[in-house]
Amino acid sequence: MAGRMSRRLQHSPLTFQVTLTVMALAIFALAMVVGFGFYAAVQADSVSLERQKILFANGMRDRIAAVDREQESIAIWDDSVINAKAGNELWMVDNISVWMYSYYGHDRVYVLDAADRPIHAMREGNVLAPASYSEDEPVLLPTVERVRRLIRDPAKESLAGDPVKLAAGDLVELDGKPAILSIMPLLPSSDRVIQAPGSEYLHISVDFITDALLAKIAGQYLLAGARLLPLSQAVGEAAIPLVDSRGVILAYAGWDQERPGSALVRKAGPALIGGALLAAGVLAFLLRRLRRPSSALQTSQAEAQYLAFHDTLTGLPNRALFEDRLRRALLTASHETAKVALLYLDLDRFKHVNDTLGHPAGDELVRQTAARLQQAIREVDTVARLGGDEFAMILIDVNDIRGAEDVSEGLLQKLQEPFKLADDQVFVSASIGIALSTGPDADADDLLRKADIALYEAKKNGRGRYQVFAGDMDDLLLRKRQVESELRLALNGGTGIKLAYQPIFAADGSTILGAEALIRWGHEVHGGLPPAQFIAIAEERGMIGQLGKWVLQEACRFAVGTELPWVAVNVSPLQLRDAGFAEQLAAVLAETGLAPGRLQLEITEGVLLDNNDTTRAALAALRQSGIAIVLDDFGTGYSSLNYLRRHAIDKLKIDRSFVNLLGRDESSEAIVRALVDLADALNVGVTAEGLETEEQKALLVAMGCREFQGHLLSLPLEPAQLLRLAGLLPGKDNTPAAVSA
Q: Where do the TM regions start and end (predicted)?
């Protein structure tokens, strides 16, 4: 017994030491595990916080973009331009101020005229005197001036010649509170309303950033306790700064930080204490538990990665991911024979759906469109949403352009099927621009530009179709831009543009009754450009108002200094669709001193066919002031006795195509006789244009025509030559050389 006791006592220190060692190792291991657990918890909290900041920042950007979209719904609208310029206060209250407050929640709205003077003001749903704008003007003025600079010269703000949206926004501080500011000009939504550059009114919208707004943003991402933190208040980690365009912090947006790692540690605490008694079990337990924060961390990173590269509305790749995939596709294609096709797609009636059914219906239309596009392409291809109703598709391994055209035809057919939006069935169409990579040196930016140009051509040529980019589109676009730029310079004090005058004679062939003003442009490089060419560019690029005003001013200045009975000026249909055209013309007459009865305006039949309220009102106001209205090229269009009766005119001009066939074609002779009789029955004058032979003149005189214009009598002349021919200016030669027609 004594021996056994001795051996037991000898083993006791060893056993104790082993036990102490095991316990020390267990405690050390437990401490390592606990320390690692706390470290993982802190890391998980940190990653979660960064994800929360990204989500909240995205939410703020979405709200700023929403303010811009909401404002655009009323800023780009024919009625807004017309009623704002007419000073229709009641209409502005119902449509562009109180309505913006009650429907979208915009807190303040101002409307400025072309000289940036306030004509309308609303704050928190209450219409105030326009002068109240002065209280906010010091803060709003820099953004107002930026919009004006954009309007005056958008080319300076553009990148690689791309068009610039004429709008500006910022975060500002008003009454000690941060707010979202958006300013854009009131622009026509169609070519029915034309306004001269520089005459745009501005619409200012202010949306205050409040606790309620931040709570709404936070609610989208399941964040709680969102609130506005002024600079005077302590700011925690769960906050993002609200910074204006100068980099000044106006306030902070804060929320209650989610701490998934800390919550996990609190839940695992009791288990850690119990595990101290069973080190091995604790270690196994902790290893299992520590896998969860690692998984949560990976999930958070994956979510943040997804949100950074995908559209939140449709789940499609956004522009950033799309451009990355396009560059990768082009890099792969450069080593293979297959090509890459890029398709730009734009819905044709999207704005109409938004305006009539509301923005929720528009969002649903975008979602359904995205689903159809995904179903119509292969899994290896990419469809992305670039913004609004704009989509893009990358087709890889395309052998030739026919493959891209087949896909485009399928897309157009797919989108022609009706869309079910709430209780409405909606039909839309789409336009598609196609660009195909052209070899190993294909550039992504160049391909994007070509697809955009092709899309523009598809829309211009009728919509509901696709258009493949062709090389001459680039040349045509560059030429148009060059002509547009040079035309602007010529109108703003440059040289080259002038007027010629073709006299209109009485039946005796010598008495000059008046003259028609004809615009000419002697281009320094291209020589004499045909008027139809640069006038079409002026109409397309929104310059026809400026060009037409210049022609009217020059013609009136010339006529007022002569004894010509009258001068005739051609007017574009787009000018007549401008609600302010009649006022503008009255100002020109007052400035030059020309009597209204000495001015005739020549219009085409298309103006009468348009038959809109603005055109009818303009024609009525012009005739009432004493200006004569002449219907040019009569008989070549949709001639209708109904619109001749509905729109009173003063004279018809028989088109040269009928006059040229007189004496050679019996049907043309019968048509001309009928037109002369029609003018006589309507008690209006009649002029035959394009007169070239004595035989034509004799036939027309016999029919009763009393006014003639054509090369037989005189070509278009310089102003001095016309006066010399009319005997109103002394000179040796009364048969001056003509200006080419």
A: 20-42
List Cβ neighbours of 594 (8 Å cut-off, separation of 6 or more).
556, 559, 560
For 660, counting Cβ atoms within 10 Å of its Cβ (0-12 exposed, 13-18 middle, 19+ buried), the class is middle
CB-CB contact of 398 with 356 (8 Å) = no
Separation of alpha carbons 467 and 404, rounded Å: 11
Q: Considering only CA atoms, which of 612, 535, 494, 513 is closest in space to residue 82?
A: 612
Closest Cα to residue 258, out of 49, 541, 423? 49
CA 675-610-672 angle, 5° bins: 10
User: Regarding beta strands 108-112 and 126-128, do their DSSP bridges make them parallel or antiparallel, or are they unpaired?
Assistant: unpaired
The residues facing 425 across adjacent strands are 420
| Whole-angstrom Cα Rg for the chain | 37
Q: Look up residue 713 and give its DSSP letter.
A: T
DSSP H stretches of helix in 76-209:
78-85, 89-92, 98-99, 133-152
Q: Give pLDDT tens digits for 232-282.
A: 887 888 898 999 988 899 899 998 888 887 777 777 767 766 665 675 666
3-state secondary structure 182-248: EEEECECCCCCCCCCCCCCCEEEEEEECCHHHHHHHHHHCCCEEEEEECCCCCCCCCEEEEECCCCC
Name 126's bridge partners.
Answer: 123
3-class SS at 625? Answer: coil
H/E stretch holding 714 reads none
How far is Cα 271 from Cα 290, in angstroms, rounded to an integer? 13
Q: Residue written as tokens 């398709």? A: 343
- The distance of Cα 403 from the centroid of its chain, to the nearest Å, equals 31
- Token pair belonging to 718: 């310089």
Structure tokens at 551: 């022609």
Which phi-psi region, left, alpha or beta, contains residue 141 (left: φ > 0; alpha: ψ -120 to 50)?
Answer: alpha
**Number of other CB atoms surrounding residue 14 within 10 Å:** 9
CB 254 within 8 A of CB 235: yes
Residue 228 contacts residue 211 (beta carbons within 8 Å): yes
Using a 10 angstrom Cβ sphere, with 0-12 exposed, 13-18 middle and 19 or more buried, the burial of residue 408 is buried
Angle at which helices 471-491 and 444-460 pack, to 10 degrees?
A: 70
The DSSP bridge pattern shows strands 466-468 and 118-123 to be unpaired
In the chain, what are the helix, strand and coil shares in percent, each to the nearest 5? Answer: 50, 20, 25
Residue with tokens 């949100």: 307
Residue 369 DSSP code: H
In angstroms, what CA-CA distances link 571 with 7, 200, 578? Answer: 124, 22, 12
Residue 736 gets which letter from DSSP?
P
Q: What is the pLDDT of residues 605-625, one digit of tens each?
A: 767 666 667 788 888 899 999
Segments in 347-443 forming alpha helices (H): 350-357, 359-376, 401-416
- What is this structure's pTM? 0.46
Contact indicator for 469, 451 with CB cutoff of 8 Å: yes
Residue 738 DSSP class:
P
The count of residues in the chain is 741
Three-state DSSP at 346 gives: strand
Asked whether 585 and 612 are in contact (CB, 8 A), the reply is: no
Res. 735: pLDDT tops 50:
no
244: how many CB neighbours lie within 10 A of its CB?
A: 17
561: nearest Cα among 371, 374, 720: 720
Rounded distance between C-alpha atoms, residue 652 and residue 675, angstroms = 9
The two tokens of residue 728 are 């109103």
C-alpha 420/C-alpha 739 separation (Å) is: 62
Helix count and strand count (H, E) for the chain = 25, 25
- For residue 29, the one-letter residue type is A
* Secondary element (H or E) of residue 435: strand 430-436
Amino acid in position 242: L
